[in-house]
Design goal:
Length: about 400
């Protein structure tokens, strides 16, 4: 095993949303007949169970200028202008260093809490943001899968679909959390989290707290979903109102402070999904300054989140996985930026993570026809590491559209 072979340890939803009962930004909670449990009961039931948080870096993060292979001269031949100079990287070892603003990631790596997985991608890559992100969201490259991998994971882990099990921080629901049985809680601003409605509907919809016996199953389903949405909005607003933390998350928390509030309040959610949205990492022009800021914000937010988990006593129970829909082409472009590429790095962060490098390192001299890194790790192998290795949920073809060996990543 050489340095360049890194260690390998290892009713329809559409018709439902058309009823106008969306909470927040289309965020609803739990299927029917499952909303009666009290917050206290939910808290005691799920307080110490393991939690997975997924953070999406939308736009195609440039992995080569994030985890900089400063020990490889080919990197500087491909990027004579935008390559991060050796003296500016935060050195992790004699080959790799972090972008200079990533102080939080540097601390996490040196504390053994940050795993870097190299060469993540899939065969026949798409260079479309929308298409490639759909592949990552569904864990089904080059297919038309309608449900997200996190949604399918929720269905597998909790087939009875208890409420408030799956939470999506964002303005809109991600495809990743679309499930057959679960209806995720989706919100961006907890203070304003409430069911969307016309003013004229307010009294009528507010009167469904106890609809009594309803024989029509479709109507019963919609009424139960509506009540469940009401219950969720109360829980979320209270969790946010009660949350007070001295931890600095930096300039933007990427939704992770809101995740902390929900975990701190003891909500029964086992799966959280958040994103750095709006294609922020699509750095085609004069990349370095903007990209450096984005990475600093990400590093600060992730570091703050992990510190907050320590503060509330949940660090042993929470793991964070970070991905982007593709990397960037290896050579810099004429606008001092980078164009859409293929293979990329992924990150896994947590107190129980065995930090270090995972996967085979892609070659910087043997690129594909489009000057892209050739992927060496199917990204679903990292997903399998989260499902099997962290959550103890055996992955299968139905869950990840294939069989993938997990990395031995957790203590």
């Amino acid at each position: 095993m050489t340095r360049h072979r890194l260690f390998d340890l290892g009713l329809t939803r559409r018709s439902l949303l058309n009823t106008g009962l969306a909470a927040g930004a289309a965020g609803l909670v739990g299927p029917p007949l499952m909303f009666g449990a009290s917050a206290q009961a939910q808290t005691s039931q799920g307080a110490r169970e393991r939690i997975l948080v997924v953070l999406e870096l939308s736009g195609g993060n440039d992995g080569l200028n994030t985890i900089v292979p400063y020990g490889d001269d080919a990197y500087y031949r491909h990027r004579p202008q935008i390559g991060i100079r050796k003296e500016k990287v935060r050195k992790l070892d004699d080959h790799f260093g972090l972008n200079s603003g990533m102080v939080g990631f540097e601390r996490l790596f040196k504390d053994g809490k940050l795993a870097i997985v190299h060469g993540c991608g899939y065969a026949d890559p798409s260079f479309s943001h929308f298409t490639s992100m759909a592949y990552w969201h569904t864990a089904a490259p080059n297919s038309g899968e309608q449900f997200g991998w996190v949604g399918r994971l929720a269905d597998a882990m909790a087939p009875s679909a208890p409420p408030n099990y799956l939470i999506n921080i964002g303005v809109n629901q991600s495809l990743a959390v679309r499930a057959r049985k679960h209806v995720p809680v989706v919100f961006n601003n907890p203070d304003n989290f409430a069911r969307e409605m016309f003013f004229e509907e307010k009294d009528a919809l507010g009167a469904i707290a106890d609809p009594g016996k309803v024989t029509n199953s479709s109507r019963r389903y919609v009424l139960d979903i509506a009540k469940s949405a009401n219950d969720a909005s109360v829980l979320v607003r209270k969790a946010w109102a009660d949350y007070k933390s001295p931890i600095d998350y930096g300039i933007t928390d990427l939704g992770l402070r809101r995740v902390s509030a929900m975990i701190s309040a003891g909500l029964p959610a086992r799966l959280y999904y958040s994103s750095y949205a709006n294609n922020a990492f699509d750095t085609h022009v004069t990349q370095n300054d903007l990209h450096g800021r984005l990475l600093t914000y990400t590093s600060d937010a992730v570091s703050g989140f992990m510190q907050d988990m320590e503060r509330i006593g949940r660090a042993d129970d929470v793991t964070l996985m970070i991905f982007s829909e593709f990397g960037r082409r290896v050579p810099e472009n004429t606008s001092l930026g980078t164009d859409h590429g293929a293979a990329n790095v992924m990150f896994v962060v947590g107190k129980k993570v065995k930090g270090g490098h995972y996967g085979d390192l892609p070659s910087l001299t043997k690129l594909d026809e489009g000057d892209n890194l050739v992927f060496t790790t199917d990204f679903r192998r990292v997903y399998a590491t989260m499902t099997d290795g962290w959550l103890g949920q055996k992955s299968n073809t139905d869950l990840l559209n294939g069989s993938f060996k997990p990395f031995d990543m957790f203590a």
